[in-house]
Amino acid sequence: MSLPRTGPPSPAAAPAVPRSRRCRPGAVLVVESVAVFMVMLDNLAMNNALPDIGRDLAVGVGGLEWVVASYTLVLAAFLLPGSIVGERLGRRRLFLAGLAAFTLGSALGATADSWAMLVTGRIVQGAGGAALLPSSAALLRQVFPEDATRARALGLRGAASGLGLALGPVIGGPLVERFGWQSVLLINVPIGVCLLLFGAFFLPYAPPCRSRPWDLPGQALAAVGVGGLIFALIQGPSEGWTDPAVLAGFTAAGLALPALLAVEARAAEPMIDLSFFRDRLCAVAALAGFSTSLALFGAIFFLSLYLQYILGWSPAGAGLVFLLASAFIVVTGPVAGRLSARRSAFRPLLVGVTLCPLALAGLAGYGENARYAEYCWVLPVIGVCVSLTFVPVNVIVVQRVRGPRAGMATAIAETLRELGGVTGVAALGAVLNSRMRDSFLRQAEAVLPADQATALADRALAHGPAAALAGPGAGAVRRWFHAAFLDGLHAALYTGAVATAVVAVCTYLMVRTPAAAPADEPGALVRPTA
């Protein structure tokens, strides 16, 4: 198989840009990696805190969903607008502004005494993350102009991103049990302040592209389209796919996203350069990142429920399960960066997308009596999969896109990854709930009238097992619930395994022939060979 080369330096180097005399590439890499780690950590760190938040703030299930969803919704919806704002105002300014907003949002959430204030803090956090992520990759391209060193730097940044996702449950669970749910947010504040001080001192300066128009129609359509889609995917499983608000979200996305493509295709200076998707290699990298995020986000979310519902573990114990996966992300992230730099980032990417269905199928092999030792082979596979997928995706996207459009390309890749995570929870959750309901009804209807069995299934699925496990027969109902949950979980995991296996085959087929090298002129995207 002949793979495209992405590692060696291109003949035409990117034009030099001003750098502060205090700029230290290593310091810049540390500041940006820690900042990206914090942003990705807060995707999952709040999950184990939700029961305590509900008790302290008197919030029901619907309100708790928005404690998590508000962050992801704003983060994904504004990543693309954030990339053009970074080019217009300057990447350094936007990175520091995003870091300040993320820190402020963490402080607001940690001191919240109401649900509204907590959600407001999470929204501010998401907006800060949306400003920070695309500008961070563009700054690394500026500080590390050579392809090989840039790939290693992006490998470390990608490892920090994957590690943040994996350590969310690991850090969140013990913090909640020891210091309360506020500590999950409060820990970001001193770290964010230190990063602001170091960033203001060490980050390089480059003049903003003031000649670039704002593209306000594109920004508005992207926010409405992506935001509406994520809203509908999040609310659909709990409210029902025919709920008016869910249908309104899908309608907004269905109207805004095609309009966005039409507007961007005609714009002289578009926010989204559609040639990104015509580049076969960028497209396959984005697809691989989306599908892996879809599968692993969904698997981690439901595995946390499995560990607490079925195995009866504490939030801290359920979080610590992922520690072994996190360790392998730390080890293999830099290795993935070096492999991507040597010759082709597609070699580790192919390995990563191949390991994903293997990991999901492995997780589906365990039932009600599983022990931690039995996961010892699956968790390292998940860790290696994260590093060998997300790191090469970042390297490919940044190296295939020249100069000032690196922020836009990174924003597209990050948006698709966030969308993949939300889609994974929603889509795999729909499979789990459908299979779980059928399994529960089969067991209940064997000993109960159909109407009683249906009412019992509705209570168990809508409000959890506690709502249906009181009174006579509680032991039998608990067994039905556990068996039904395991049936649904296994169906969801196998569905994810099949979907990612298809993506792995497509990835192999799409990169087996060489593609054109990146264009020399700054800002250009490669055009694929026939």
From TrEMBL:
Gene3D superfamilies: MFS general substrate transporter like domains (1.20.1250.20), Multidrug resistance protein D (1.20.1720.10). This is MFS transporter. Keywords: Antibiotic resistance, Cell membrane, Membrane, Transmembrane, Transmembrane helix, Transport. It is a multi-pass membrane protein. CDD domains: MFS_MMR_MDR_like. The chain crosses the membrane at residues 27-46, 66-85, 94-117, 123-144, 156-175, 181-204, 216-234, 246-263, 284-307, 313-336, 348-366, 378-398, 488-511. InterPro entries: EmrB-like (IPR004638), MFS (IPR011701), MFS_dom (IPR020846), MFS_trans_sf (IPR036259). It comes from Streptomyces rubradiris. Belongs to the major facilitator superfamily. EmrB family. It is found in: Cell membrane. NCBIfam families: efflux_EmrB (TIGR00711). Residues 28-515 form the Major facilitator superfamily (MFS) profile domain.
